[in-house]
Amino acid sequence: MARPICFRIEQPLYQCLDRRFALAREAHTEVMEVSLMKLSLKAAAVACGVLWGGCLLLVGVVHLWVPSYGAGFLGTMSSLYPGFHASGTLPDVLVGTGEGIVDGVIGGLVFAWLYNTLMLGPLTSKHA
């Protein structure tokens, strides 16, 4: 159990508050000195590729059983991906999944690269 900061009644209030502010300032300084972490380009690319490809696969497979499900979404995706058609056949679902994986990998790479470039560049110095 943590000891209270002001444990004596005789201690003046201003000394108690000064001590609390000093502890808060030390904690803030320690937090500011921790360097930011970099994102792994490979991990971000794989995660985004699996996630986006999995989304297209899931919607495509459900669309095979229930043709009204995801028709608008698949129609939009077929307008973005040149080899993919929202015809409701298994080969089209597989083509859409493959293109979604490639698109997700590229998007994950770009996101992780931008994050590492923009966040880590100017903030690596220690703050006072």
Strand content: under 5%
Any idea how many domains?
Answer: 2
Give the low-pLDDT segments. none
- For the termini, the CA-CA separation is 31 Å
* H-E order: HHHH
* Total strands: 0
DSSP helical segment count: 4
Overall pLDDT score:
81
Radius of gyration, whole Å: 27 Å
Give the class from helix and strand content and strand pairing. Answer: mainly alpha
* Helix content percent band: 55-70%
Main beta sheet = none
Shape: elongated
In short:
Helix content is about 70%, strand content about 0%. It has helices at about 15-35, 40-65, 70-80, 90-120.
Please tell me about this protein's structure.
- The protein folds into 2 domains: 34 residues; 80 residues, no CATH class.
- Helices cover 68% and strands 0% of the residues.
- The chain has 4 helices and no strands.
- Helix 2 runs antiparallel to helix 4.
- The mean pLDDT is 81.
- The chain is mainly α and 128 residues long.
Throw out a few tags for this protein.
68% helix, mainly alpha, elongated, 128 residues
Note the topology.
Layout: H1 13-33, H2 41-65, H3 71-80, H4 90-120
Helix pairs in contact: 2-4
